[in-house]
Amino acid sequence: METATGSPGATGWRTSPPSRRIVQPWCGDGRRASDRQSGARPGQEHDTVSRDHRGSRQVSASVRTERLALRPFGEDDFKAVRSYLSDPQVMRYVDDPYSDKQVRRFLSRWVGDDPPVLALVRRGKDKVVGHVVFHRYEHPDVYEISWVLHPKYHRRGYATEVGRALLDHAFRDLGAHRVFATTVEGNDAACRLMATLGMTREAVLRKSTRHEDRWLDEYYYSVLDTDYADRRG
Ligand SMILES: CC(C)(COP(=O)(O)OP(=O)(O)OC[C@H]1O[C@@H](n2cnc3c(N)ncnc32)[C@H](O)[C@@H]1OP(=O)(O)O)[C@@H](O)C(=O)NCCC(=O)NCCS
């Protein structure tokens, strides 16, 4: 379960010691943990992402809430994105903090008009507060969601607000059958967020994630179309 030091990942060259690896699928940057850890070549990783998105458009960038909007990243977002992706506390349960080079690679990767990783911005000011990963996962009607926000914007209900909007989008507009999210033991904010969104903790992968010389449980949460319909009456 180690990433070879210096092996290329989807967002840059990994140089940190394997003992710090966290196995958080897609959480930070839209990469699958197994890709990161297997040392897969960049092309292979990218193919995995592309395959999930080929075929039909999800256009999540059209999602708006009262305070927030989603949009594709641009190169001008470098400073804003570096400010949170390089923060060890933010990245604690996601990945190693990103270098400038990794941030640039992250930004150059998630361009286009319907990317799986979208900037989360304050409406009006277009201020980047973080990003959301929202993408099809293996089946056309199954989606994964995750969030990474700048610490300045934590605990303001932003992740809940955009999460609710994306669940509405998934079930109402995209005809999703299932939306899931993963996190790890100790990430209380993510666990609370998923519970607030009405996601059920459906699986625990016991001590499956290597993090700072410890093995952590990995949690899978989901909401199904039937749950969503029940809640809406
Ligand atoms: C997880 C994260 C996205 C939550 O974003 P957020 O905008 O602060 O979340 P919200 O303000 O919508 O809060 C959602 C719930 O979590 C709770 N919460 C937020 N931060 C918390 C924390 N540090 N500890 C415990 N609970 C927390 C809130 O009180 C709220 O609970 P409630 O619905 O019962 O009132 C944010 O903490 C983050 O970006 N963390 C770093 C990256 C990460 O770990 N992402 C998760 C990967 S899936």
Automatic annotation (TrEMBL):
Keywords: Transferase. Residues 1-62 are annotated as: Disordered. Signal peptide: none annotated. Pfam families: Acetyltransf_3. Residues 43-55 have a biased composition (Basic and acidic residues). The keyword Transferase applies. Residues 68-226 form the N-acetyltransferase domain. The keyword rRNA-binding does not apply. Residues 1-18 have a biased composition (Polar residues). One of its GO terms (molecular function) is acyltransferase activity, transferring groups other than amino-acyl groups. CDD domains: NAT_SF. This is GNAT family N-acetyltransferase. It comes from Arsenicicoccus cauae.
